[in-house]
């Protein structure tokens, strides 16, 4: 297989044919499309989900509702003019309700659009309608669930292209800086870019074939992951290829050795990440399950292109591709030089115990923020830039009951009048009315006294569910109830999925390293990295960035990406250390591994951190938070854990680091005796 990839007569075919096939698949298939379902982001089996499913069975159901708000800052609202305008502009039966203070009025408008795009168009048309010919001094805005959904859709309008361009730009700049070549960076960037587009097509088509849900953010996160992981694999291969060119006259022979030495850590890394991603199939959230499968497909594509297309593509060109720093046969290999990383390793080797203690103390201090973390974002907190729906909702709460813009809904197959009476008598409910009937289902809309996201509103939902428990097939849904169920589902997902991820990563490392102690220590280091990055991120979020909480999905996804991707760099370092230890012993093997991989792993880590930080180009808090946590974690793992902590532990333990494997022998065939250097 290696001879096929690097053969003089076959390399160009191996490089060209997959690229042509990928282009054909991208053009012929394209990304699969689907209309979002009402329960795509709701936890399976939750009360709010069951209520949403009942609402879908109503014969003349409205997909959602919008709330038109007219308000004045001074004086009283010209109510007669507003009502006359509403009679002309809004649908029959829509009633204008004034506030008690006389400064505002609202009208609840059904939105019957089926898809997210149609919903956004209808909300935009409604906004244009109500702002036309509005009386002087009066502000007309649209809020409510439909408006929030429309503003959320606007965040993702053109988002995939913006995210792709930003990601590609960051990768290109960092590759130029890394290679210091005006030409070389084009090869890996082209290969990874094609892999990204193919991954998007194959992933969405796979999801469609299995009937799984995905949303606007799925392809965006997929692209970030494919670019990040694919470029990391490319950096590792090219670094080894450059080194082998210094000891081989033939570039084909050099690439053959580079591929053989790279395939094991890359496959181990990709397998670990794929298995970790597939654990998301156990999530209660449909779109989270879809994200896991989509990203697993993406990693398979990225690793395949890095190990097949990239080696063939590079070897087609001569050594000149590295210009102006062209490697020549006879030059000293990087592992034999007194580079920065060798000097760092020698310093760590002098006092490994002190470095282990100091690094762990630093990570422990950084992890203190974990004890303060709260999860759960209100609708108003989901956007980095406050849209009209949120601004109007805040203004509405000044003149109306806090829950008027987004009523809590009760769906039931029981007697509607009895359910309505029970809802009205429940503490925390300001008012309630039957809004729809049909197919044996009744919908009751309840306006809560408390503001959304408060403990009082949550208690009102709990009280409603308790009061309605005697009624068969009766469920409480709406934004507040859904937020509570999502938080409970996220907690359940963490309890189930996090231990499984750790077990899979540990098992993969045991098989790769044929050791027990080293895998346990490596997993412990990535856990420490995750804790420290989440702790630091919490202080960052609640301090300079002004967030009140983490999105409920951030801890799980951040843990997955940091553990699965963070262990990659340990795999790259430790597999090289084991290779070097065969001839040089454990101590010198680790120092040589750090020397050989220090530069490339640091470049890969900085690149991966920057790529995930690109998620911040979308004005959505959950993606900004996810990108920040992963960015901080990857930098910590790259610059502190992999550079200092792991080498220090290995140097302190010596041959025991590989227990229970047979001790590697030194250069002269003697087992190496180690102490605290």
From TrEMBL:
<feature type="transmembrane region" description="Helical">
    <location>
        <begin position="593"/>
        <end position="615"/>
    </location>
</feature>
<dbReference type="InterPro" id="IPR004869">
    <property type="entry name" value="MMPL_dom"/>
</dbReference>
<feature type="domain" description="SSD">
    <location>
        <begin position="198"/>
        <end position="316"/>
    </location>
</feature>
<dbReference type="InterPro" id="IPR000731">
    <property type="entry name" value="SSD"/>
</dbReference>
<feature type="domain" description="SSD">
    <location>
        <begin position="523"/>
        <end position="651"/>
    </location>
</feature>
<keyword id="KW-1003">Cell membrane</keyword>
<keyword id="KW-1133">Transmembrane helix</keyword>
<feature type="transmembrane region" description="Helical">
    <location>
        <begin position="161"/>
        <end position="179"/>
    </location>
</feature>
<comment type="similarity">
    <text>Belongs to the resistance-nodulation-cell division (RND) (TC 2.A.6) family. MmpL subfamily.</text>
</comment>
<dbReference type="InterPro" id="IPR050545">
    <property type="entry name" value="Mycobact_MmpL"/>
</dbReference>
<feature type="transmembrane region" description="Helical">
    <location>
        <begin position="291"/>
        <end position="317"/>
    </location>
</feature>
<feature type="transmembrane region" description="Helical">
    <location>
        <begin position="352"/>
        <end position="373"/>
    </location>
</feature>
<feature type="transmembrane region" description="Helical">
    <location>
        <begin position="262"/>
        <end position="285"/>
    </location>
</feature>
<keyword id="KW-0812">Transmembrane</keyword>
<keyword id="KW-0472">Membrane</keyword>
<feature type="transmembrane region" description="Helical">
    <location>
        <begin position="621"/>
        <end position="645"/>
    </location>
</feature>
<protein>
    <submittedName>
        <fullName>MMPL family transporter</fullName>
    </submittedName>
</protein>
<feature type="transmembrane region" description="Helical">
    <location>
        <begin position="496"/>
        <end position="513"/>
    </location>
</feature>
<dbReference type="GO" id="GO:0005886">
    <property type="term" value="C:plasma membrane"/>
</dbReference>
<dbReference type="Pfam" id="PF03176">
    <property type="entry name" value="MMPL"/>
</dbReference>
<feature type="transmembrane region" description="Helical">
    <location>
        <begin position="220"/>
        <end position="241"/>
    </location>
</feature>
<feature type="transmembrane region" description="Helical">
    <location>
        <begin position="553"/>
        <end position="572"/>
    </location>
</feature>
<feature type="transmembrane region" description="Helical">
    <location>
        <begin position="520"/>
        <end position="541"/>
    </location>
</feature>
């Amino acid at each position: 297989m290696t001879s096929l990839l690097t053969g003089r007569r076959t390399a160009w075919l191996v490089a060209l044919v997959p690229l042509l096939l990928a282009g054909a698949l991208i053009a012929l298939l394209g990304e699969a499309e689907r209309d979002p379902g009402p329960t795509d982001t709701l936890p399976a089996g939750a009360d709010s989900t069951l209520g949403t499913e009942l609402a879908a069975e109503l014969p003349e159901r409205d997909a959602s509702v919008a709330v038109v708000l007219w308000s004045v800052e001074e004086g009283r609202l010209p109510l007669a003019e507003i009502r006359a305008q509403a009679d002309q502009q809004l649908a029959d039966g829509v009633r204008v309700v004034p506030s008690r203070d006389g400064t505002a009025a609202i009208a609840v408008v059904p939105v019957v659009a089926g898809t997210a795009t149609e919903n956004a168009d209808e909300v935009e048309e409604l906004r244009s309608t109500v702002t036309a010919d509005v009386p002087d001094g009066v502000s007309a805005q649209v809020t409510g669930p439909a408006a929030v959904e429309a503003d959320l859709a606007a965040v993702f309008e053109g988002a995939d292209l913006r995210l792709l361009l930003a990601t590609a730009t960051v990768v290109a700049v960092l590759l130029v800086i890394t290679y210091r070549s005006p030409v070389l960076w084009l090869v890996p960037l082209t290969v990874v870019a094609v892999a990204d587009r193919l991954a998007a097509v194959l992933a969405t088509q796979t999801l469609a074939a299995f009937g799984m849900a995905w949303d606007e953010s799925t392809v965006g996160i997929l692209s970030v992951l494919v670019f990040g992981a694919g470029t990391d694999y490319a950096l590792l291969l090219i670094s080894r290829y450059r080194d082998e060119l210094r000891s081989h006259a033939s570039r084909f022979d050099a690439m053959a050795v580079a591929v053989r030495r790279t395939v094991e850590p890359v496959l181990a890394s990709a397998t670990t990440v794929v298995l970790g991603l597939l654990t998301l199939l156990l999530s209660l959230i449909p779109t989270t399950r879809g994200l896991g499968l989509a990203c697993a497909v993406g990693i398979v594509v990225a690793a395949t292109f890095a190990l097949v297309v990239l080696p063939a593509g590079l070897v087609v060109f001569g050594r000149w591709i590295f210009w102006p720093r062209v490697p020549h046969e006879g030059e000293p290999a990087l592992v034999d030089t007194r580079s920065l990383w060798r000097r760092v390793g020698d310093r760590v080797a002098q006092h490994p115990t002190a470095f282990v203690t100091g690094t762990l103390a630093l990570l422990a201090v950084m992890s203190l923020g974990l004890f303060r973390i709260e999860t759960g974002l209100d609708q108003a907190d989901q956007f980095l830039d406050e849209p009209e729906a949120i601004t109007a909702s805040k203004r509405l709460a000044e003149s109306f009951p806090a829950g008027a813009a987004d009523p809590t809904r009760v769906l039931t197959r029981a007697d509607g009048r009895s359910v309505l009476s029970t809802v009205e008598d429940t503490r925390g409910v300001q008012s309630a009315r039957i809004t729809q009937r049909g197919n044996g289902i009744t919908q009751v809309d309840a306006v809560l006294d408390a503001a959304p996201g408060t403990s009082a509103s949550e208690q009102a939902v709990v009280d409603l569910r308790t009061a309605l428990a005697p009624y068969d097939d009766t469920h409480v849904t709406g934004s507040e109830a859904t937020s509570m169920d999502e938080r409970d589902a996220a907690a359940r997902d963490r309890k189930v999925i996090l231990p499984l991820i750790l077990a899979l990563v540990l098992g993969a490392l045991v098989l790769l390293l044929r050791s027990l102690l080293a895998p346990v220590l490596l997993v412990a280091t990535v856990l420490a990295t995750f804790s420290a990055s989440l702790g630091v991120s919490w202080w960052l979020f609640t301090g300079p960035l002004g967030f009140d909480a983490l999105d409920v999905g951030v801890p799980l996804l951040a843990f997955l990406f940091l553990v699965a991707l963070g262990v990659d760099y340990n795999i790259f370092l430790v597999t090289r250390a084991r290779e070097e230890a065969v001839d040089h012993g454990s101590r010198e093997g680790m120092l040589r591994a750090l020397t050989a991989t220090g530069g490339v792993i640091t470049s890969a880590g900085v690149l991966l951190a920057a790529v995930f930080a690109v998620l911040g180009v979308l004005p959505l808090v959950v993606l900004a938070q996810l990108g920040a946590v992963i960015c901080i974690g990857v930098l910590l793992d790259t610059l502190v854990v992999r550079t200092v902590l792991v080498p220090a532990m290995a140097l302190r333990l010596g041959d025991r680091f590989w227990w229970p494997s047979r001790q590697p022998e030194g250069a002269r065939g003697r087992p190496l005796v180690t102490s605290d250097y």
